[in-house]
Specification:
The complex is a heterodimer of chains A (158) and B (196). With 158 residues, chain A is mostly helical. Chain A has six helices and no strands. Chain B has six helices and four strands. The chains are: A mainly alpha (158), B alpha/beta (196).
């Protein structure tokens, strides 16, 4: 019996809480912004009228630093972006010669040739004459491309 | 930091030489060792000592060394760090390549004046509080290269050194003893004391 009354009371509390929350929703949503505003106004007021108090208000979140538990002495070197021992010189936005890319393309073609030649050389006897013909055709195609690049003066550095 | 644009290598050499000469002129006297809290008689109450004990325990149990191994003492440090001597039991197993994540600089090796600005810069970029162990004769006094014009006579010319470990090179046991001494030194630190 007593428990039933307890549940009714709990229900009433929840209902009242729900109603009040719903009614006060617009106010409560703007509450953090309001508090920040009030805090700023208070700080500004204290800054103008009681300058010695302001020393104690902002450091509250920095309490360990304020208590000197954590040492705090920044320098320009420590705050710099790069953590290499060398000083940064110049800018990273430099132009590379476009011939590097031609060299890279020719290198990749020959590199893949080597990738195919190695397994063929390992299984030379097993693959027999068929493997030899396939590799010769492959090398022929690559060499045609290489000679084409040569004739187009890709290998000259000017 | 200003970014100066340097394009010719001779200009770069001149600037670097000027900076190094300025550093040599500035660091003629050794920097005193940071030990002012060791002899200090503080009024210690029970709250402060508990906090100090906790903080110092945390600080000395997770010292991460930064990479600063210019010469041959590095091999003794490597021997110390791997499994036989195993400095991981002091919480020092992670050797950081970045000074932002390190507390301890074990200076293992001869330092030339040309390398000195870089070491000083790495020390400056380490997070506070930071400690330095000067490992080996070269790090303490320049060692057998002391009379050379290009060798820094001891790391304490450019950075404050906490513990000196003599030897050429020191054995891993000596380095571990130095680390234990540094632990003792840290455990006497107090947040109320000045310094560090």
């Amino acid at each position: 019996m007593l428990a039933d009354y307890g549940y009714i009371g709990l229900f009433l509390v929840v209902a009242i809480f729900f109603a009040v929350t719903t009614l006060l929703l617009p106010f409560s949503l703007s509450l953090p912004a309001r508090l920040v505003l009030y805090f700023r106004r208070l700080t500004r007021y204290l800054e103008t009228h009681y300058p010695f108090l302001v020393r104690f208000i902002p450091p509250l979140p920095k309490f360990p630093r304020f208590m000197q538990v954590v040492p705090y002495n920044p320098t320009p070197v420590k705050s710099s972006t790069f953590e290499c021992g060398m000083e940064t010189i110049g800018t990273a936005w430099v132009r590379f010669n476009f011939r590097y890319y031609f060299y890279a393309l020719v290198f990749i073609a020959l590199d893949i040739l080597v990738v195919f030649l190695y397994p063929w050389a390992v299984e030379l006897r097993g693959l027999g004459i068929f493997g030899l013909i396939a590799v010769v055709i492959f090398i022929f195609i690559i060499v045609i491309g290489y000679i084409y690049a040569w004739k187009k003066k890709v290998l000259e550095w000017k | 930091m200003e970014v100066e644009e340097v394009y010719s290598s001779s200009e770069l050499d001149r600037k670097e030489g000027k900076a190094i000469n300025e550093l040599i002129a500035r660091s003629q006297e050794p920097i005193p060792d940071p030990d002012q809290w060791l002899d200090e008689e503080l009024k210690r109450n029970i709250l402060l000592t508990s906090v100090d004990a906790l903080i110092d325990w945390g600080r000395r149990s997770s010292m991460w060394p930064v990479v600063c191994f210019p010469a041959c003492c590095a091999f003794e440090f490597i021997a110390t760090s791997v499994s036989r001597f195993d400095i991981d039991r002091f919480g020092m197993g992670i050797i950081r390549a970045s000074p932002r994540q390190a507390d301890l600089m074990i200076t293992a090796g001869t330092l030339t004046w040309k390398m000195a600005p870089q070491v000083k810069r790495i020390y400056d970029q380490m997070a506070e509080p930071k400690w330095v162990i000067a490992m080996g004769a070269c790090a303490i006094s320049g060692g057998i290269f002391r009379s050379s014009y290009s060798v820094v006579p001891g790391y304490n010319r450019i950075i404050p050194v906490d513990v000196y470990v003599p030897g050429c090179p020191p054995r891993p046991e000596a380095l571990i003893y130095g680390i234990r001494m540094l632990h003792k030194k840290i455990s006497k630190m107090s947040i109320a004391a000045k310094g560090k």
